[in-house]
Amino acid sequence: MSKLILHVGTHKTATTTIQDLLALNRKVLSDHGIVYPKLGPAGGQHGLVTDWIELPAHYNLPGGAVAAWKSLAQTYAKGDRTVLLSSEEFSRGHPHRFMDLATVRDICSGFDEFQVVCCVRNQISFLQSLYLEVAKNNVAVPWKQAFNGAISRHLALGLCLDYNDLYQHLQRGFAPEEIRFFTFEQAIKRPDGIVGELLDSIGLSHLAPDLKPLPKGNSNVSQDPLAAWASAQIAENASAGAPLLAIARRVLEQEFGKDAKTTVYTEEEKKQLIRTFDPLNRKFEDDIRKTGHDLNIVWPKPNPDMVHRGDIKLRYWIRLSRALYAASPKLHK
Predict the structure, then answer these.
(1) What DSSP state is assigned to residue 6?
(2) What is this structure's pTM?
(3) CA within 20 to 30 Å of 146's CA: 62, 135, 215, 259, which one?
(4) Cβ neighbours of residue 157 under 8 Å, at least 6 residues apart?
């Protein structure tokens, strides 16, 4: 029997690590009847969305995304192998920018079995991780703009923060019993981490001992939240580079201690997110339980030692200014 498995993210749930690990182990997977195709330059198959979602040009596939889906279906749907595809872009559910899952299901209707697996995380962690990702790779979106959009539209950078909307998006192409969710917070507590949780969810846990680990550990690790935020205030219309981030973090350590854990939130912003999304999460969890699976999205536990954005006072900015001055030889001339 043929089977199509879609790992759909979401964003910032170790997807790059998972995709790089699967790509590294293509031969191992193939030996067990699992096809993890190489489509494009990345570990994941992001090019399969580009007929609907604009991505950087290097992700584009020859002939386009629909042609690639048709090729996969023609090659594997009538066989006895499992095709595993992974892209967090599959889960992008913006009302005007999403993948047409109904069309994908129709193209791939020849497969005997379907499974969609998706990892979600609490919105406090999710929103901050999205902000840090953009701050690392592009000009940072102003934090208040990102936060207010999350509260008012339940979206962040075009991604669903209301997981009921995400669930509805996935059901455009797949039945509830074909969709399986798990939480990031629970998965990372496992000895084998999120990869182990994913393999369990798709019935491939027996492969774990055979998979080679990534030589450099996890991919695409987030940066320090407050260092990224402070650097964005200085860089403003440019992307903050590694030297600026390092100085911003060093000054944070001078202010709050070497082991300081930070967050871009204020205490009130956290409370506001919980008031907004906790009822929506409970509804989502109830709907998932109707499929026979348990799900529990948990909020971060209060940490009295956490350094919040509201803890940044004038002294920090003075220290940071002095550190930047000392690091800029041209200013001493």
Answers:
(1) E
(2) 0.94
(3) 259
(4) 130, 134, 141, 146
